Amino acid sequence: MIFEKMVDLDYEQLVFCHDEASGLKAIICIHDTTLGPALGGCRMWNYETEEEAIEDVLRLARGMTYKNAAAGLNLGGGKTVVIGDAQKDKSEAFFRALGRYVNSLNGRYITAEDVGTTVADMDLIYQETPYVCGMSESYGSGGNPSPMTAFGVYMAMKRTAKEAFGNDSLEGKKIAVQGVGNVSYSLCKHLHDEGAKLIVTDINQAAIDRAVNDFGAESVGIEDIYDVEADIFAPCALGGVLNDETIPELKVKAICGSANNQLLEADKHGEMLEERGIVYAPDYVVNCGGVINVADELQGYNKERAKAKVEGIYEQMDKIFNIAKRDGVTPAVAADRLAEERIESMMRVKSTFSQNEITTLSRR
Question: Which residues neighbour 121 within 8 Å (Cβ) at sequence distance 6 or greater?
């Protein structure tokens, strides 16, 4: 069944990593390297079964192919999942063993932090391989990617506002923000500085209080955020929040937020938003500022250069909305097409050069 799935969706490689001494059990998946080496984070999770871990790494690696391609990066998609409890099972030997496995792929895959892993973990991996990003700033890293992710969301929101309202100004716009974590707090600062009016909710009362105190935000209950009258809804917490129950409640003209997998069912709920006249900004493009920032480390990190690339998310969103109009599809489908068209065009370029090399050799 594993090979069937790999064939169906064009996966390149699945690597099972085991180190008895440290207790490491991990899976590295490389989905596609057409655009360049696969970049994707290392997720540590206490999976119930090995099958669940395999399903997750396959899904996440393919998602990174689309994210990196749509972000305009010369990188393919990959991912690592580590089976274990992030609170109990970590050690120096654990991550250095993983670093040796990453190194054995000779640069085909580059890892970074993700759910359950930290900058300190990446520092340990770096002791064994150069194919890692997101280490401590002392190693030349960009450090915490949250501010860049937030800046990317802000740029995406401005282009989404232009699509929904005719111009990209957020001044005076009411924006309902679901979740006020690290990324979202930085986003709220950008929005507040431009003169937007914020309505926030979070499961953490301290996070709500900070947004209210710092930005003059209005706070509402967790479930009430879907029903507020606003211009833009910004999901910045859980996935799957746009579904059969919540979409009919929305009283907004646009959706743009940092949360992953916002549409519970991509095709169905993308169409539902379209039918209601709500402009949806595809989340994996909106939140790609973090991976753009991390990828800049591969050239020797430069903050201004990285920020300029993140600012380019505005243009990527422009391409997505234009493809949606061109093909008569939802922005969610258009984002996939943007990624697929870029990969396909580079595949043709590589194929052309390969064919030229074969022709040249045959003449010798």
Answer: 42, 90, 95, 113
